[in-house]
Specification:
The protein is an alpha/beta fold and 274 residues long. Helix content is 41%, strand content 18%. The protein has twelve helices and twelve strands. Helix 4 links the parallel strand 5 and strand 6. The termini are far apart.
């Protein structure tokens, strides 16, 4: 577990709890979020991460900045899916405060290497620096640069490099054929299945229980286990038990929050005598 002791309070400061969960072998469970939702409540409701999407949504990264900022100090880690595996989009997401980056449609080793380089500061990558961005223990976007020594700043850069969660998506037959090469890239934490696109590529469009689809997932889990990378699902297919996927080996996925919230409200109201 990666932590530091706060110089002011003496308390323990965790860098990226999501990273710690993934390393522990436990399942990291998140939910999708948008700027129109009650992000502070979601971020402190017990989810391990909130996933903000800019690929299949009307929002761009800059619109997510207030939502990510209100997560400061919350249990959940902010994770952003960029619209494409592009350095500028990745940079914008990191500058917004993301502590996890998801890139769609990563099909080759070269594309995976590009993703990792784009996420990391020199000497491990090509990420441009514009001051402290995000929340990294005692360093955050609100830390005045003038208060940091050169050694402090290098610690921040190294911390961000080490603690960021990097997640390419596997969604195509090309990626399936290149899976071992993709997973050989140092720095990848999770290989994330795009359920819909992968099912289409496998010729069983949204037929998630089919043998063909499930065999594809088994191949992904086996390859991830061989390379020490966590297998993930962007979402658990409707009507399927999340525990089925956990037992299969998937340890990173989202669950819809609305149904649980509704049930919680109903349960709360049902206990009141009217």
């Amino acid at each position: 577990m990666y932590f530091k002791i706060c110089s002011e309070t003496g308390g323990v400061i965790f860098m990226n709890e999501l990273k710690d969960i993934l390393k522990s072998g436990k399942a990291a469970i998140g939910t999708t979020a948008t700027p129109t939702m009650d992000v502070p409540t979601l971020a402190n409701s017990g989810f391990d991460f909130l996933l903000f999407d800019t690929q299949h949504s009307p929002y761009d990264v800059k619109q997510l900045i207030p939502s990510v900022q209100v997560m400061k100090g919350a249990k959940a880690t902010p994770v952003i899916r960029v619209g494409q595996n592009r350095e500028d989009l990745i940079l914008n997401a990191l500058d917004a405060g993301a502590r996890g980056i998801i890139a769609p449609m990563v099909n080759t080793k070269e594309e995976a290497e590009y993703l990792v380089r784009s996420c990391r500061y020199y000497p491990l990558g090509t990420r441009s620096n514009a001051g402290v961005r995000g929340e990294w223990g005692e360093y955050s976007s609100s830390t005045p640069r003038a208060s940091m020594t050169s050694e402090d700043y290098r610690k921040y850069l190294d911390m961000a490099n080490e603690q960021l969660v990097i997640i390419p998506m596997i969604e195509t037959n090309v990626a399936m054929n290149n899976i071992d090469a993709i997973l050989s890239v140092s720095g990848i934490d999770v290989l994330l299945v795009g359920p819909s696109d992968l099912s289409i590529e496998l010729g069983v469009s949204i037929d998630y229980p089919s043998d063909t689809y499930q065999k594809g997932l088994d191949k992904i889990v086996a390859a991830c286990n061989n390379h020490g990378v966590v297998p993930g699902m962007y979402f658990i297919p409707p009507g399927m038990d999340p525990n089925f996927y956990v037992e299969k080996g998937f340890k990173f996925f989202t669950m819809p929050s609305a149904g649980w919230a509704t049930e919680g409200i109903k349960n709360g109201l049902s206990g009141i005598k009217r």
